[in-house]
Amino acid sequence: MDSFTSSKQPLSHGLAPIITIALLYLITTLATQSLATRVQPQVNNTNTQVIKKTCGVTLYPKLCFKSLSSYSVSIQTSPYELASAALSVTLKRAKTASDRLSTLSRRRNLGSREVGAIKDCLENMEDSVDELQKSIMAMVDLDGPEFEIKMGNVLTWVSAALTDEDTCMDGFKAQGISMEIKGIIRGFIVNVSHLTSNALAIINSLSST
Description:
This protein has about 210 residues and is mainly α. The protein is built from seven helices and no strands.
C-alpha cells in the first residue's frame, strides 16, 4: 500500500507547474481581452466625434454623419481621409444614379419631353461622375509646393459636379413631364446633390486650414 502511494506522488508534483502555467496564461488572456474591450470604444468614439464635428460645417450634417460614420476606422482623425471618404461615397451614389437614369431612359411609355430631359440629365450625371473621379485622384497627391493649386482644382471639379446635378433637376421643371417621372428623378438625384454639397463643404474647410 505504501509503495502504491509513493508511486503517485511524483505524478502530482509534475502536474503542479503545468497547472500553474495554464492558470497564468488564462489570467493574462482574460486581462488582455478586458483591456482591449475598454480601449477600443474610446478610439472609435474619438473617430466618430471628429466626423461629427467636421460634418457640422455642411448643409446636411445628419446625412454627412450617416454616410461617413462607417468609415471611422479608415478615417481615424485625418481630415484628408475624411474628405476622400466623402468624395468616394458621393461618387458611388452618383454612379448608381447614372445607371438608374440609363435604365429609365429605355422605358417605353415616355413622352418626347421626358425622353429629352432624361437624356440631358444623364449627360449631366456622367459629367458629374467624371469630375468626382478627377477630384478623388487629385486628393491622393496633395503634398508639395502646389498644394493650393491642386486643392483649387478639387474644389472646382466638385463645384462643377454639384452644378451638373442641379442642372439635371432643373430640366424636369418644364411642362409635359409627369409627376411620376419628376418624383423618380428627384429620388435619384437629390441625395447625390446633398452628398456632393457636403463633400464640397468638407474640402472647402480643409483648404482654409
